[in-house]
Design goal:
Radius of gyration: 18 Å
Number of helices: 4
CATH architecture: 2-Layer Sandwich
GO molecular function: cyclic pyranopterin monophosphate synthase activity
Protein name: Cyclic pyranopterin monophosphate synthase
Enzyme class: lyase
Pfam families: MoaC
CATH class: Alpha Beta
Pathway: Cofactor biosynthesis; molybdopterin biosynthesis
């Protein structure tokens, strides 16, 4: 059976992965949130009124990864064996870099879960800080690398 999102009548469907082999899979995604220097300083100092921005964004990113199949049409509901987000404040560029690593052992990959994790985390940073900085920019959402499955290893160059 061909792995496609199009059925015999040309309509959308969820791909049948039941014949695929279970393998260890891992995906790493990235996002960046640009903001005013004062906003970044307030996050570091813990003076944002809504609370600890990065702790809440961490939990939000994990919850986003776990619920990807509820957000992305035709994305398979999968068991995630691990999800970690790392936040790096960059005062030179006035931004926060967000990296998510998601793992599972299954029949389909976790790229969408990693991309959802960084997106939801970035949106949470925006939501928690928008009262002081509505000019924040969420950018550079991308897959950095993935391994496992039939397609093997992907590593973003540059």
């Amino acid at each position: 059976m061909e792995l496609t999102h199009i059925n015999e009548e040309g309509r959308a469907r969820m791909v049948d992965v039941s014949t695929k082999e279970e393998t260890l899979r891992e995906a790493v995604a990235f996002s960046r949130v640009y903001m005013k220097r004062e906003t970044l300083e307030r996050i570091r100092e813990g003076t944002i009124k809504k609370g600890d921005v990065l702790s809440v964004a961490q939990v939000a990113g994990i919850m986003g990864a776990k619920n990807t199949s509820h957000i992305i049409p035709m994305c398979h509901p999968i068991f995630i064996s691990g999800c970690d987000l790392i936040f790096k404040m960059n005062f030179e560029m006035c931004c926060i870099d967000i990296t998510a690593t998601v793992k599972n052992t299954g029949q389909t990959g976790v790229e969408m879960e990693a991309m959802t994790a960084v997106s939801v985390a970035a949106l949470t940073v925006y939501d928690m800080c928008k009262a002081v900085d509505r000019e924040m920019i969420i950018s550079d959402v991308m897959l950095l690398r993935k391994r496992g499955g039939k397609s093997g290893v992907f590593e973003r160059k540059g």
